[in-house]
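Re: the multi-chain job from yesterday

Posting the exact lines I submitted so nobody has to dig through the queue logs.
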Amino acid sequence: DQQVKQNSPSLSVQEGRISILNCDYTNSMFDYFLWYKKYPAEGPTFLISISSIKDKNEDGRFTVFLNKSAKHLSLHIVPSQPGDSAVYFCAASAHSGAGSYQLTFGKGTKLSVIP
Amino acid sequence: GAGVSQSPRYKVAKRGQDVALRCDPISGHVSLFWYQQALGQGPEFLTYFQNEAQLDKSGLPSDRFFAERPEGSVSTLKIQRTQQEDSAVYLCASSFTSDEQFFGPGTRLTVL
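And the result, structure tokens for all chains:
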């Protein structure tokens, strides 16, 4: 069973508008969440993260919102730029357990920003 | 370079062959992770090292998969008697803390 779900395989947005990428999780032990961006033939690149003690984290054009009660997080990109076109992965980890801080990833959402 | 490097970038193997994939983590990073990414999927955890100690290998799919990091730096993922279902991109990541992981470009393995 998928513990991290990204239900939208793709998203198209006009340049300058807001992109909203969604992610849902099922494991209540997850307490740290990350977004990675991936271009073809490259490894994932860290974008932004949020701890479960917060509900919002902002870094420039990127903001991540966390709704723990709904087990839902979202990434907002404002304004969207053509260079943002990539696959975005949501990932989660559990720091409080005895595990290795391994990341559990969703399947990704391909964002296309149209000029 | 300052990032995580992996070699080879591409590997084609005949079914039944053994392969070895190398990862050079960022200098000073204590933690090292291996992930497997199948086509159209997100990366899936394989194994984790803290320095030279392999603390978690719960994600290794079978006993044909073996990983080592003998000196706490470079790591090698070995797959014995490769099967077609082993075809995937193998990603290595390293981190200094328990938070952000830095990924290499991956090795794309194709088993014919």
